[in-house]
Recover the amino acids of this structure.
């Protein structure tokens, strides 16, 4: 989500951009698999990385939808 703060605009735009970028999980899975195969991640770290990627990929769109609804209603 920090990546959204590099963009210009108000706080809502930055936060929304950061949330929208989160579900790019396929890249995270590729890096986690490469790290596991090369011995940088053991099975526990790999499992945690996969969990985080899956969780953020599923959760970020829901969070973004809620933020956009609040923003459209003028609540955010």
């Amino acid at each position: 989500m920090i990546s959204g703060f590099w963009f210009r605009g108000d706080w809502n735009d930055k936060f929304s951009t950061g949330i929208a970028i989160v579900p790019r999980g396929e890249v995270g899975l590729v890096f986690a698999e490469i790290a596991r195969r090369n011995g940088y991640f053991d099975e526990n770290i790999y499992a945690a990385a996969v969990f985080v990627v899956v969780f953020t990929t599923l959760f970020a769109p829901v969070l973004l939808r809620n933020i956009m609804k609040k923003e459209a209603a003028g609540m955010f």
User: Anything to note?
Assistant: Helices lie at 11-21, 25-37, 43-72. Residues 23-76 form one domain. Confidence is low (pLDDT under 50) at residues 1-5. Residues 30 and 36 are 10 Å apart (CA to CA).
